[in-house]
């Protein structure tokens, strides 16, 4: 047993030295957990910002001018007045995301207690902007109508007052969410790439034959590759959380980073094993990339980080329970966003360990077959 641990340790050091001498992979790790996270977190916005809006004011009344003036920055750009005959051309050319049409006699109908209709044209090619913007515009119009009715700055009294309290991300800043979810996505991607590249590199350089004549077992070789590549990713993730996420982006992490790193290690155990499985089916890095990309895209899009898992079809929710990324995404959000402890996230950790053990067994069988055919 002691000899086996010594072999795993020394083979792992060999993997780290091999990774250190590969400038492309080293740069990929550095870029992925620094600039890539910062750029995406600061530039990909889910909330409404500087939306272009135009108004067709057929009423030209005090109320219509009041509504136009209510669309303020930073949510909207300064509203542009359009003629009714310009709407279709402006929308087709994507000049405006929203065009609001205020009909003639709008204020007069409001004063008489009628219910005039406003038309809001929305360019829904950007779905998030369209949905959020339409809700903002509706709320702004309702507020202006309330102020007009009361002739004061206060809206009319309502039967129910809704008080909203936002936890975990009180300012609803999308950069907080994007930074954490990008780290999760990058861990998924790099764990596949590094583990697969470690096996492909042995085959392309011819060093796999050297391993065959050494007194080591396929299991020891696999474990060495898993711990070495996992260690490299864990170090990068830890530095990224402290330096990029907390210091540069000023994202508040509510939970334990140590617990998150422990869960990350379990996730890497599963993902590096999957990377080794895929690498045994490929003879070169281009082939491995063609195999790995579909796995990464599916796990990244359907794990619950991009869209809620509850909104997917039931059969897909059940199917994605077999993917370690689903449990890791839930684990990461619970720990880093909501400050959950081991007592809450242990089911996700247990599932990652179970799935990782299954994938490790598959990888070991495939790796033994690959080494036997090479011999």
Structure characterization notes:
By secondary structure, this protein is mainly alpha-helical. It has 2 domains: 245 residues, no CATH class; 98 residues, 3-Layer(aba) Sandwich (abc type-2 transporter like fold). It is built from 15 helices and 4 strands. It has a 4-stranded mixed β-sheet with strand order 2-1-3-4, covered by helices on one side. Helix 8 packs across helix 14. The two termini are 26 Å apart. The relative contact order is 0.11.
Radius of gyration, Cα only, in angstroms? Answer: 28 Å
Sequence of strands across the biggest β-sheet? 2-1-3-4
Instruction: Enumerate the spans where pLDDT stays under 50 for 5 or more consecutive residues.
Output: none
The profile of the biggest β sheet is: 4 strands, mixed
